[in-house]
Amino acid sequence: MQMQMQFIFIIGPAILPAPVRFTLYAVVLVFVTRSLLSQLLIAFSAFLLRSLSLSFSLHLIFLGDLAVRRQFCIESVGLWLLSALYSDSDLDLLKLTGMSEKALRDLNTILGTERKNEDSSKTCLTKPSVDSADENIEEPQKKKTSSSLVSPAVNGNQTVTVNSGAEVVNTEVEYIESENLNDLEDIDTCLKTLLAGLDSKDWVLVCDTLNNVRRLSIFHKEAMLDMLGDVISSIAKSLKNPRSAVCKTAIMTSADVFSAYNDLIIDSLDPLLVQLLLKASQDKRFVCEAAEKALISMTTWISPISLLPKLQPYLKNKNPRIRAKASMCFSRSVPLLGAEGIKTYGIDKLIQVAASQLSDQLPESREAARALLLELQNVYEKFHDLMESAVNEHTVKEHTINEHTINDHTVNEHATNDHTANDHSVNEHPEMSSWESFCQSKLSPLSAQAVLRVTSVAREGLVS
Asked: Which regions are annotated as HEAT repeats (predicted)?
């Protein structure tokens, strides 16, 4: 069958007139089922080839161009039927009985050419991958970015090894913990090349420079004060780097900058904050964990009174993961205000923020809101108890004075004054009522109900 498929082409003397060829094909189609006539036809074709010394005109139907298909369409149909009805022995007989050496040579040449074309087409399909592989081997020598492998921890520090091309260059980017960083040898040179190193296209150099920023923050933070704003902008740029090694080193640098400069970076915090919230929301575990540590460092070292206004807009972000991370930071930062700080900031403002997070999409946001509400309830009840004890002490003192007073008129007058003082004290702090009344006065009915449900369930759990 394979031999027959190779004969799906136009076979015919090129200079025979078309009527003669069509007549020949018609005879073949009528008498092709008779073996004797078939062999006579083969002999006749061989005689024509020998006598006229003509070559075969060979054209593959499915590989020929459009003009060839149009020119030989009728001949193609006829010979396709002819080749389908011939057996392999008939085709061999065709070779043995009639074909001239020139015709066989032409046939072999064309079939060989077609095989070469098929092989070359297959080679063209596979060769680019080989070429691209060779290019991928050469490319790391130029960019030093061919492959990055995280090796096992070395002395507690993770390292990234870079192999470039034929020459293997071991470039290690270490994730060094803050307590393991060493001081710089040449501070002046480091400061001069700091910004250029942070903006370099060589990612290994960027990582080294970020580690130098960490060293300066820990050992020489005053030396970097003048360029702190530019340094923070470059750190934020590195946080956007798609290379994980650069991104994680920038995250660790952010944590050290928070611990060193505290509120001094509050004006430049926004670009760092949004990137850290994004990285903490990623699926890459080692990047996410580093970002979480940096956010904890931020809430620890930056004062809550400055940080809370920066965090509050992200509680309404469209990205639910960013909302969750911002809510967790907000919940961690509020207790650091202390009872007096919470009262000064406004319990009513904070309870409204916490109530809005109770219905958030992600459980992290809801859990952070519950923790914040419990903290606010404790602070509120603490001040409520203090005010009640203060009023009681004032009442006891007044009654003690009244016992030493003999004049009834003075006693009655003092009692009247005592009652007036108590009323004045209560009216001076009208918000110091029960927690339930406070929630109902500051929140919508549905929000107040949700807040009271959370705090009452938590209180029942503590009591039980």
From this structure: 307-345
Length of the chain in residues, anyone? 464
Q: How high is the pLDDT of residue 351?
A: 95
Range of the domain at 444: 321-464
Last residue of a domain, one of 251, 275, 302: 302
Burial code (b: 16+ CB inside 10 Å, e: under 16) for 277-287 equals bbbbbeeeeeb
CA 78/CA 56 separation, integer angstroms: 16
Q: Give every CB contact of residue 76 below 8 A, 6+ residues apart in sequence.
A: 8, 9, 10, 61, 69
Coil, strand or helix: which one is 154?
A: strand
Contact 74, 81 (CB under 8 A): no
3-state secondary structure of 220: coil
Rounded-to-integer distance, Cα 260 and Cα 231, Å: 14
| Contact predicate 250/241, CB 8 Å | yes
DSSP code string of 180-195: GPPPPS-HHHHHHTHH
* Residue at 308 is within a domain: no
Comparing C-alpha atoms, which of 271, 262, 357 is closest to residue 315?
357
DSSP 263: G
In the chain, % of residues over pLDDT 90:
47
Among 133, 150, 180, residue at a domain's last position: 133
Question: Which of 179-187's residues contact partners 24+ apart within 8 Å by CB, and which partners?
Answer: 180/156, 181/211, 181/214, 181/215, 181/218, 182/215, 183/215, 183/219, 184/212, 184/215, 184/216, 184/219, 184/220, 187/216, 187/220, 187/223
User: Is 70 exceeded by the pLDDT of residue 208?
Assistant: yes
The position carrying tokens 């071991």 is: 170
Q: What is the pLDDT of residues 223-247, one digit of tens each?
A: 999 999 999 999 999 999 999 999 9
Task: Say if residue 46 is in the same domain as residue 82.
Answer: yes
